[in-house]
Amino acid sequence: MIKIRDLKKQFPNQEVLKGVSLDIPKGQITAVIGRSGTGKSVLLKHIIGLLKPDHGTVFVNGDDITQAEGHRLNELRKKFGMLFQNAALLDSMSVFDNIAFPLREKTKQTESEIRERVEEGLANVGIVGMNHKFPAELSGGMKKRVGLARALVTQPEIILFDEPTTGLDPIMKKAIHKLIYDTQRRFGFTAVMVSHDIPEVFDFVDQVAMLFDGVIHETGTPGAMQQSTNAAVQQFLRGDLDGPIQIN
Ligand SMILES: Nc1ncnc2c1ncn2[C@@H]1O[C@H](COP(=O)(O)OP(=O)(O)OP(=O)(O)O)[C@@H](O)[C@H]1O
């Protein structure tokens, strides 16, 4: 379980997080939704300890990652996998080496163990035989699959997904959401996913949290969010121009 309490973060020109509190249940998928620029990625970076808050705590299985430094921070980070917006593959490396990268960085596995894990990883995301390709040779959907295989390869307890379907066509978006859902159900990791695919993503997550004006405005199951009487939630889900959320 990840417990975020009263998280505040200000950058020189703006206060982004103004007291975020959120419980992220273990072994479930939580989607974080909200307008562009509201601080969803900033929130993810606090969860993994890449940014330090001005105030507040992020407990990861009872350890406050905001207070961790050096070796302890590295140990806590080993619990995480991350799939970035653009899959963030290393262009100079083959698919095989991209997926092997976290194993080489974070573990002492032998090359034959690594080979086995990478082959398994490719099979998990349905891209067997792609080992020797380079990122430039892959379609957007393939890149996301490689990114997912890389995020999964260390069998992390928690995986953070920052807009994992950006730039894909609607059918490929659904395929990637389903793949994330199926792999989460199979391996049981805790997932936090920032997404703009609304309402499509609601079919593939357990909990939705809406970030608005620096705080988590509402949290609930996808069904409960869709039925919400909160005006900001309804405006956002419908994409209305009029309502409490101002266009700026
Ligand atoms: N390191 C930083 N230094 C200064 N400002 C930052 C930094 N990181 C993020 N910001 C600002 O914080 C705000 C929130 O950014 P963030 O990327 O978290 O938004 P987001 O909700 O993920 O948006 P999107 O949906 O468009 O990806 C933005 O205005 C951004 O410019």
TrEMBL record:
Per UniProt, residues of the ABC transporter domain are 2-238
Its domain of life? Bacteria
The answer to whether keyword Isomerase applies is no
The signal sequence is: none
InterPro entries hit by this protein: AAA+_ATPase, ABC_transporter-like_ATP-bd, ABC_transporter-like_CS, P-loop_NTPase
Tell whether Transport is among the UniProt keywords: yes
Kindly state which keywords UniProt assigns to this record, in alphabetical order: ATP-binding, Nucleotide-binding, Transport
Which PANTHER family does the UniProt entry name for this protein? Answer: INTERMEMBRANE PHOSPHOLIPID TRANSPORT SYSTEM ATP-BINDING PROTEIN MLAF, PROTEIN TRIGALACTOSYLDIACYLGLYCEROL 3, CHLOROPLASTIC
The name of this protein is Intermembrane phospholipid transport system, ATP binding subunit MlaF
